[in-house]
UniProtKB/TrEMBL annotation:
This is RND family efflux transporter, MFP subunit. Coiled coil: none annotated. Residues 196-267 form the CusB-like beta-barrel domain. It comes from Olivibacter domesticus (Pseudosphingobacterium domesticum). Residues 275-336 form the CzcB-like C-terminal circularly permuted SH3-like domain. Residues 1-28 form the signal peptide.
Amino acid sequence: MFNNQFLMKSYIFLLCTSLLGVSCTSHQADTSTKVEAPIINNGGQQIIFKDNAMKSFFKTDKVSDGALSASYTAPGKIAATVVASVAGASQNVVLFDNPDLASSYTALAQHQTNIHQIQQINIKQKEIELERASDLLNHGAATGRDVLEAQTALASEKSNLANEKAALIQHEADLKQGGFNPEALRRAPVGKAYVICDIPENQISNIHEGAKCNITFSAYPNKTFTGVVEDVADVVDNITRMIKLRVSILGNSELLKAGMFAQASFDLKNTGDNITIGKESLITVDGKDYVFIKKGDGQFERKQIHTGQQIGERLVILDGLKPKDQVVTTGAIQLKGLSFGY
């Protein structure tokens, strides 16, 4: 209890000092002026300021009520392009910006070929040889050793098949972590370019497969390309909390090259009538979301809220606020310290 009281008094002292500093003009401050500390009631639920300098520090904004639309721009780059094979290969050639992904794709194609060879030819041949050896044994024309060797050869091919599939899974995982679907790459037509960009996980609900976006490139600042979201990755980065999007552009192979930097702009729309606030008003303590609303001259009240999706720089509020509430936009962090005692 002593430590909490000490921390609260220390925080009030620092807050008063900082706010007084903000309110100072070019005139020298009167050192005899006393700053009246804020009044904290109901366990931090209500905070009242008597000092005019402190009152003027806090800025508020009325919550928005209605449909909301915005856009989100995500940086990215062309991670791969599809070109025709000049060597007469049965599949098109995929040129990757990342050599590791290129290696994984090549290895994956080789393992797929090996699997087909083992399944459709090697194993079937060994099964025929085992059946023949068993038949010869039944007619006294072969020995048990011949049958055993045929069984061993068949088991060896099945083991090779399992190893090839295990290797295939690893290379497939590497490609998916890079934002690619191996099967989609195999079917991709000539002239398609893939842009990989990262978006925050709180925007996943706003961007979906099939959505169109506008893409610009540093190489062509005056030209806008249309892309289509082909896939949203299955993994969220554990550190950055970002998730990869794969956006495809078709029909500009002569302009777009792997490695080009891009900016993808997505339209974010919320068609419902919802209360929204700027994200700068939100504070989070112990997993719960709060805002501070202005109740009168220098009076602020802490309100717990439940948030929905984020549209651009604004948050949809599902519960806790009314349309005419004035929410603190500047000074929310300072009020958080006073309200919760740190």
